[in-house]
Specification:
With about 170 residues, the chain is mainly α. The chain has eight helices and no strands.
Length: about 170
């Protein structure tokens, strides 16, 4: 089936996943240059969904919010906040867990990408052009301070993910 938006976003998931994998081959010795590329890539991916894909699908849906939208908005907030935390093995474990659940929900049959693809079928080329021309999201250096981690834990909890439970494998 011809699904250019689905393909665009799932290909971008793979690109971002690969950057994370390359940056964290050794979780105790992170390649910070590649990790920064991962952070920019993930935040730009979220920006593409939040600023282009989801609004276009909502508009095509008669202005009605998409099913499950709140989940994706909360997960995007959690992932964005986690990007502010200085990377360590625990953070990486939580990131991978949330990304796996999030990406699966977007990519599965009947998932968010399929819904958006179907709703915006008449404007696919215009959307792809906007997506391809989006500017990368700038990032600040991640922070080691505990208040940043605590904020990320709170935002992750609102998205349905308990940071400490994921770290302890109690998910």
């Amino acid at each position: 089936m011809n699904q250019p938006l689905y393909d665009f976003f799932t290909d971008d998931h793979r690109r971002v996943d690969l950057l994370l994998e390359q940056a964290t081959k050794d979780p105790n010795n992170i390649d910070h240059k590649i990790y920064k590329q991962f952070r920019v890539g993930l935040l730009t991916h979220i920006k593409m969904e939040e600023n282009i894909l989801f609004p276009a699908a909502k508009k095509a849906n008669g202005g009605n919010q998409l099913p499950g939208f709140k989940r994706f908005r909360n997960e995007h907030a959690a992932l964005t906040t986690l990007m502010a935390v200085y990377p360590n093995p625990n953070l990486l474990k939580v990131l991978r867990h949330i990304l796996e659940k999030h990406d699966e929900a977007e990519e599965r049959s009947g998932g968010m990408y399929e819904i958006c693809e179907n709703l915006t079928r008449n404007e696919t080329e215009e959307l792809l052009e906007k997506l391809k021309n989006i500017t990368p999201t700038p990032v600040h250096e991640p922070k080691k301070e505990d208040y940043v981690l605590q904020a990320a834990k709170r935002v992750s909890k609102r998205a349905g993910y308990d940071y400490d439970s994921i770290v302890a494998n109690n998910v």
